[in-house]
Amino acid sequence: MTPGSNIPLPVTRVTVDVAAPVRLDVSGLLLTAAGKVRSDDDFIFYNQPSGPGVTYRSGGGSAPDAITVDTTAVPPGIEKIVVTASPDSAGQTFQGIEPTATLRNADDGSALATFTPPALGAETALVVVEIYLRNGAWKARAVGQGYANGLAGIATDFGVTVEEPPPAPQQPTAPQTAPPAPPTDPRLSTTPPAPTTAPAPQAPPAPPAAPGKINLDKGRVSLQKNQTVSLVKAGRPLLSQVKMGLGWEPAFRGKDIDLDASVIAYGPQRNHIDSCYFGKLSIVNGAIKHSGDNLTGEGGGDDEVIVVDLGRLPQDVTGLVFTVNSFSGQKFTEVAKAYCRLLDAATGEELVRFDLTNAEPQTGVMMAKLIRQFSGEWDMTAMGDFVKSRTVRGMVKPAAAAL
What we know:
By secondary structure, this protein is mainly β. The protein contains two helices and 25 strands. The chain has a seven-stranded mixed β-sheet with strand order 13-23-22-15-20-19-18, with no helix packed on it. A six-stranded antiparallel β-sheet has the order 1-12-11-8-3-4.
């Protein structure tokens, strides 16, 4: 599965396990239509392993933790169960860690689907997948939304009470005679702590929230390789139509270079839907259009432009990969100033830019990808990955693998 994609559930009891190179804590939250828990009893985790229709199973360190959902036992009013994961080691991020969620038939263990979120960075917790009710039928959706303030950040967002330590007692006249106890890992409380006559040792407060993903609130964004930007601004509607401009110049003055920009559209299972390039200037009923071929790369501005009407894209289009190929066989070591930039088609405002800062002696490069999120918004990720291919046809498989 890819972020934002969904599948119908063919069975009533499903298990979601999340595996990674490190130990993960996996949790489940039962949510109402408002996207909140009814009470702390709806937070299912290692310290509260069962709830109505949802149970937690520890892997004991040798197997991944898992959440099982019995859709026939989920109480009325609960429309969604989100499955979360966070590294067991306090403060560890998902940087360099590739978690994979496997959705299974809970009765026989057979795999129904798998989901590996795109490259992560500062996130210390993740909403991985959700099991949700739509028009009387249960479905599963890949999410991959990261939080930089840990499991406490996720829990707070969904209405769970997070234990906060009381202010440290003031003792200005009495020096401390013993060293303070080392801090423990912050844990979530499912009931308010009972009052005591003496302050009990408490976990430190959760660190302030930090953005797990760049957004457009502060204007134009310049991406580095593998960075991701959410294509929304606070208080504004989702972008409806964008232009992806791709440009390049010959590395040696006077030597023309003929590159071809393309975009490949994929479905929820990384299935190839169609490709838009100089030989096919319009796909998916005109929702994606190509400006046509530039044979030299000379001149200022974008060499080729691809217009994407996000609002008209069919729901089964969940991923777009933008590529550039050298049909003539010239390598990217002969290209200078290659870039891609995303513009708001309505205003012409440049939103995101990615400059290719390195080159390899290959004939194809994946420049960027757009991924539809479960909320309906789109994310753009800079890629800059080189491929041995002179045509967009040869890019289909490597681009699918990169989603």
